Amino acid sequence: FLQQELRSAGRALGPCPEEPRAPLAREALRVQEQSEQLAQELREVSRNRASLRGRLRELRQYLHVLREGQRFTSLPEPWGRGGRGAAVPIPAPSPCPRSFVAGVIHPWRVSAFERLLWRACRGYLVASFVEMPEPMEDPATGETITWVIFLISYWGEQIGQKIRKISDCFHCHVYPYPESEASRADTMNGLHSQIQDLSVVLEETEQYLAQVLDKVVLALPAWRVQVQKMKAIYLVLNQCSFDVTEKCLIAEVWCPVRDLTQVQDALRQGSYKSGSSVECFVQRIPTSESPPTLIRTNKFTAGFQSIVDAYGVASYQEVNPAPYAIITFPFIFAIMFGDVGHGLLMFLFALWMVLYEDSPSLRQASNEIWQTFFEGRYLILLMGAFSIYTGFIYNECFSKATVIFPSAWSVATMANHSSWSSAYLATHPSLTLDPNVTGVFQGPYPFGIDPIWSLATNHLNFLNSFKMKMSVVLGIVHMGFGVLLGVFNHVHFQQRHRLVLEFLPEMVFLLALFGYLVFLIFYKWIKFSAANSRLAPSILIHFIDMFLFTSNAGNLPLYRGQVPVQTVLVVLALASVPVLLLGTPLYLCCRRRAPRTGHHGPVATGDEEPLLEGQEAGNSVNATKEDVESGGHSPDAEHLDFAEIFMHQAIHTIEYCLGCVSNTASYLRLWALSLAHAQLSEVLWTMVMRNGFVRLSYAGGVVLVPVFAAFAVLTVAILLVMEGLSAFLHALRLHWVEFQNKFYVGAGYKLCPFAFAPDVGE
Fold this sequence. Notes:
It is found in: Membrane. By secondary structure, the protein is mainly α. The protein has two domains: about 5-75 and about 95-220, no CATH class; about 300-410 and about 445-595 and about 640-740, no CATH class. Helix content is about 55%, strand content about 5%. It has 22 helices and eleven strands. The protein has helices at about 1-10, 25-75, 110-120, 155-170, 180-235, 260-275, 300-310, 320-335, 340-355, 360-365, 370-375, 375-395, 410-415, 420-425, 460-490, 495-525, 540-550, 560-595, 625-630, 640-665, 670-685, 700-740, and strands at about 100-105, 125-130, 135, 145, 150-155, 175, 240, 250, 255, 285, 610-615. The strands form four sheets. It has a four-stranded antiparallel β-sheet with strand order 2-5-1-6, with helices on both faces. The protein has a three-stranded antiparallel β-sheet with strand order 9-11-10, with no helix packed on it. Helix 8 packs across helix 12.
């Protein structure tokens, strides 16, 4: 009720300036008493104000009725239609006195009211309608409308009764209308004085109501927080169970081991402050249930962890990909978004959000899209920084090359050692620089791509070859790193047989085929130079011949004994498939059939396992240490059978072997999107910004202003927002499907600890 009154008064309820503690029972009674007293006071003041407003509205309506009626009755007879029109009167006998009915009616009901009067009274009346000069509030709806004043003159008591009944049916406000002019003048003077007195009283009531609302604004935020905390506490207490004596509550909860001391201290303090005769205590019990996952984050790592959690919450004690994604995700994004200018704009935008992250206007914005950007500000910051780095590697700044170091190619040396004449230069707009000529090519560029390639007509062929091979190399390294992370899962969950039966075949299959492809790429780069580059064989043909167990006479081998080496590698890769398919199912089947030793029972738990506080009947009766530590990953679980294990392993084998091929091809999106981003930047510069430099006179300077504005808008809208979102989504897919699929299960559920939320819904 208090909050509703604040909203109706146009008051905004601000946040609680301090963080009050959850009140005790006697404090809650005090809050209840104070809030009820304040609500009662507010009800009385609001009711008085509403009564005064209604009375003042009626007096003003009555005053307007008398004023308009005075104008109508002062007209000479016979009357004509006034205002909205009047019914044509039928002359009445002179001895019959004339009477009046006056009031106000809603404008929507005037037409029907007038027609019904005419039909019911057969014209023995004169009705005049006029709009009230002052709009007033409708008490039924609260809207401000312009009422219509009516004045009806009639002859005969029966006609008067009919008019009053019809007025009541149409919810008209009928007011007494004195027949003499002197009486009407006296009534109007009395109304003026009453309106003035009521206005003064209403103003004082409004001031007192404002004071009461000020008290509500000060007290209500703290009361809301206290009540919400009490409701949250009682919600948790209702989930507890009674002990045998029904005097104590037993709570079974998950708690991280490192926070167990804080829980014990809090329970001890609670027992002391409440004056309880029974001390609270914590009992650690093992369990075979899969514990929830708690990953502690800060404002920097929260954005990266949310990306991983969107794929699936990590299973208990599973390797978390988020720390590695802090580097790999911005880097893979930057490969597709490499541009110094675009990366710098993105970096500055994120840096502004980081520097002003404590600003309430940024943090409390209601726009959902803005909240997404703000929560990922550190992710955007790193994406911009890495894009600047890859932009220097590609030597692109808004599609233009930057000359940081002198070019390693010498055109003058080529001109001195060639027979270029004036006629030759006139007929050949493009000239070829031969690196085999001494002094033309002086060595690799110190950092990134040589800027002279931006002027070459074959720069696309060069960059396509470079970026395609780079995508394959980085993709295979990324997938291999994902397979390597699976080792930590196998070791931690004490499934060391999977190191030999899964990890080793997976690495052999990946490295024997695609790791060898990376070797061929680097070997060809190292072995062949500009002098013998025309003799360099095709890696693609060699790779195809490797699977066909053949050799191509037209495609020279890269090294001696290449065919036998490739044959051995393919045989190793094919031999790893049945090991990966049958190794784990056969091992688990043999292990289940082997005789078991030892016994099950409650065991002492380690320091890193989750805990349960309290204990109920039936918990942890046959729980082993391996059950607890593996979190449901134990190979000895009774529900596993050979058919289920084999089916799961067959799916994993098919997915991995086919995925190595498809995932490697999937990393070519790095090349495709990098090429698309560079070409879009070049097209935008050529078709927009270049037009501003066509004329360098005063006219060209004037044209440059709108041209640059269009270039800036298109750069932000297309290259930063749309291309940035596209690169982000592709980087997300590469992490979810190609990287995390190699080791990450993501079948867990989050730990939701009890906490007082800062913004609790009503």
